[in-house]
Amino acid sequence: MRSEPPRLRVDPIACTAHGLCAELLPERVRLDDWGYPIVDGAPLEPELVAHARRAAAACPTLALKLEAGAGARATTRSTR
Ligand code: SF4
After folding, report:
1. What are phi and psi of 71, to 5 degrees?
2. How far apart are CA 43 and CA 7, in angstroms?
3. Ligand 1 binding pocket mutation candidate from 8, 16, 18 (most atoms within 8 A of CB)
4. Which mutation among 64, 66, 67 tests ligand 1's pocket best, with the greatest number of atoms within 8 A of CB?
5. What are phi and psi of 38, to 5 degrees?
6. Does 80 reside within a domain?
7. What is the pLDDT of residue 53?
8. In terms of residue numbers, what domain contains 66?
9. pTM for the whole structure
10. What is the mean pLDDT of residues 1-20?
11. Does residue 80 surpass a pLDDT of 60?
12. What's the rounded Cα separation, in Å, for the pair 71 and 59?
């Protein structure tokens, strides 16, 4: 089974509107009038996944996250 590509998500509580994510990933992040990021949550194109991971790692508050796609989640097993 092929897993779906990851999706971008922003934790609005943790985000402090640095705007770094929009600089690092302008293809998928734009800023609103107050400097908060707007992401559409659609699956990332494969060529953008590495850039998205870099943007998430660079977020000073760890508010930008990559969520596994639906297929990946469905195949994840508990190890307990
Ligand atoms: S880099 Fe992080 S804190 Fe800054 S705007 Fe993006 S998500 Fe928010």
Report:
1. -65, -40
2. 5
3. 18
4. 64
5. -120, 120
6. no
7. 97
8. 7-75
9. 0.82
10. 91
11. no
12. 26
pLDDT digits (tens, 9 = 90+) for 24-48: 999 999 999 999 999 998 999 999 9
Q: Tell me, letter by letter, the H, E, C secondary structure of the chain.
A: CCCCCCEEEECCCCCCCCCHHHHHCCCCCEECCCCCEECCCCECCHHHHHHHHHHHHHCCCCCEEEECCHHHHHHCCCCC
The distance in angstroms from the start CA to the end CA of the chain is: 23
The tokens of 66 are what? 């990559």
CATH number at residue 22: 3.30.70.20
Query: What pLDDT score does 77 carry?
Result: 42
Domains contained in the chain, number: 1
Q: What is the mean pLDDT of the chain?
A: 87
31 CA to middle of ligand 1, Å?
A: 10
